[in-house]
Amino acid sequence: xxxxxxxxxxxxxxxxxxxxxxxxxxxxxxxxxxxxxxxxxxxxxxxxxxxxxxxxxxxxxxxxxxxxxxxxxxxxxxxxxxxxxxxxxxxxxxxxxxxxxxxxxxxxxxxxxxxxxxxxxxxxxxxxxxxxxxxxxxxxxxxxxxxxxxxxxxxxxxxxxxxxxxxxxxxxxxxxxxxxxxxxxxxxxxxxxxxxxxxxxxxxxxxxxxxxxxxxxxxxxxxxxxxxxxxxxxxxxxxxxxxxxxxxxxxxxxxxxxxxxxxxxxxxxxxxxxxxxxxxxxxxxxxxxxxxxxxxxxxxxxxxxxxxxxxxxxxxxxxxxxxxxxxxxxxxxxxxxxxxxxxxxxxxxxxxxxxxxxxxxxxxxxxxxxxxxxxxxxxxxxxxxxxxxxxxxxxxxxxxxxxxxxxxxxxxxxxxxxxxxxxxxxxxxxxxxxxxxxxxxxxxxxxxxxxxxxxxxxxxxxxxxxxxxxxxxxxxxxxxxxxxxxxxxxxxxxxxx
Length: 497
What we know:
Rossmann fold, globular
């Protein structure tokens, strides 16, 4: 009887503070901010209080280039919190300065994160106590801070399951003698010690930071440690769906049994938010040039190659010119996103952009940034020349658009191999950059293999849509995640009794 009375009192207390409170904390990079803001919007839809913790320079760009203020005003439980940053927005997030980026994140984030979590427990705070943190899976210091306050942390990895599993398998590769290897090694040599990938993975398909003879490389050690730290988190969220990466997900679950696959996240959001906003939600850190949609409107069905290398890729002048010649020589229409900071170094930036724009008028269209989901959904787009970032890959899959993959770094090398060899959704052009290869690949995708690729792409697009529909795998996993977060809230209330 006493137990029943205690539970009734607990329910009464939960009704007084009925909503859990989740802190969402991405690293300050376009792809991570985009997907974790979509996650925050989905959480807000369920009535959960959300604090989106980001850096001041990222918040300023969101306010400048998106409608986040009006969009999130619909959810009274949503709140932005910011951290000062000692690095500028255009600080290189790749190459030799990458560890400087992550070192700065840790140093600047820990004090304000701890203070926010502590102050949130004071009675004067208008928001409910923090139920859990959903942290980017490369921010393991969040676990250290949260454990002090007995707050659970759920990891969100914004990369594919196959890339995550490749990262997780690095110690196994070292133990088997398949690492290290330098850049002068035979890059087509098979890699046999990543479970589930034995039959098709090559050295060149591993993340590019593994192309080293130095196993003490700081970034390699950092990624390995951060990935293995996933087992310390309460659970893992992946932006993927069971029908796409099922066999690899089974491998991951042997180490991370509490795994929620809730992707494609942008499609799940569109499904859930349709009654509120039928349009695509933009979380862009650059100004989107929507004039390209009018240009696409004037082009025939599946006649245009969309070209975008994402938010981080940096290219030399020579690489840009090889792509330009290849695209022009293919004879196909192309829409090319040339980010303001795409060119390595600033010397001659204005000149090369002028040359490209003038030389492209006959066959193409160049913009600084595009509304990508809208572009890929346009009927005129027949192929996507991509860097194989995971958001771009998923958006292409959902739109049923075949890909030509030119990966730049990190997870993108693994993604491109799966696109070409496992899912049969495109062609892999990694480690080559010459005009003849670009022309050949574009013609192959848009002519010779168009019907074959479209058939595979359409089949996978239907599976993606089914996964986020009611009763689909991702939709059910989403419901389970929300139920488990609410259970955490109830348990916390019970523990304070």
